[in-house]
Amino acid sequence: MTNVQLQVQPAAVSDRPNLLGMDRAALEAFFIAMGEKKFRATQVMKWIHQQGVVDFEQMNNLSKELRSRLAENACISNLEVSRDVISSDGTRKWLLRLADGNHIETVFIPEDDRGTLCVSSQVGCALDCSFCATGRQGFNRNLSSAEIISQVWLASQLLEEEKKPGRKITNVVMMGMGEPLLNFDNTVTAVRLMMDDFAYGLSKRRVTVSTAGVVPAMDRLGDLIDMRLAVSLHATNDELRNELVPVNRKYPLKELMAACRRFIDKQNTRSRITFEYVMLAGVNDQPEHARELVRLLKGIPTLMNLIPFNPFEGSGYSTSSGNAVSRFSRVLHDAGITTVVRKTRGEDIDAACGQLAGRIEDKSRRHRRFTEPRFGMTQ
Ligand code: SF4
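# iron/sulfur cluster complex -> structure
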């Protein structure tokens, strides 16, 4: 594990609009309201997201007068890097400080053919999945679109400074801290920026939004954007899923699977849904679970990711054995389901799936629920 010297400083906190988090439509509206032509929006997007420029003075294709008006009326404000560590396997994790003092985490995972950035959408998470360190932290608030896209901006800049081959963001997955679909509008704005040719220009197959199964928001998302969807499944029947992924009590598997089918129908051809399945020893990793999974996924174009459980203190779960994972994946393969057994990455820096915790002030009273008996029985 290596600690990295920090080089990026945040812009001063400001109550002026932060242009960093505006998508093209919002920036065009901003410039029109200033009495400017709307093409200024794409000029400024290129400066910010492609050139990494956050000082209006350096935007030399804008007039001097416009630059000074922008400096007076707007800002480009990033998160602050509190900690920056690189794992022995090349995974790099940033602990990022928000203006309110909370912290979130962002992780870059290099692989042979891609570099994936795992981005957070909320400060903590309210969904309380029983195997997830973020869920244990409780929930504080949604991230703004600027706070979401700032993670991509910072990671791009800091990886470029490494000047090493293969250290470039080619894919973004919204699988960090939080449930993106419970922060819907800001997530959609940030995703639009990730895919905009004047910002990060990622193709729709390289941007994935992950959900634990917020069914109405899945429908809305399918109506709005053509991109990849991942569903954190983790269980094959309602009884077990109610325990592992409590949002299942509100949107049970039958509704969730119907929403997946509707999502696929709305997307262009060759779409498929990625299903995430964390392997918990003796809980959900038996061959009968795999067979149940095959029945559940019938008719849905699927990429199945089997994820090794990454233990954290007090989780109460343990990692499935290699044999259990092989048996499980064989059942899926035999049924024609494309299945990938994920390797654990960034374990030595607590950057693996389900390990992101940040440092947050819990506003959900979840912690009190578990420590004070009078809350425990009644909520
Ligand atoms: S797995 Fe995702 S949805 Fe569940 S608690 Fe963790 S961050 Fe929230």
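# post-check
Confidence is low (pLDDT under 50) at residues 5-12, 367-379.
The first strand starts at residue 2 and ends at 3.
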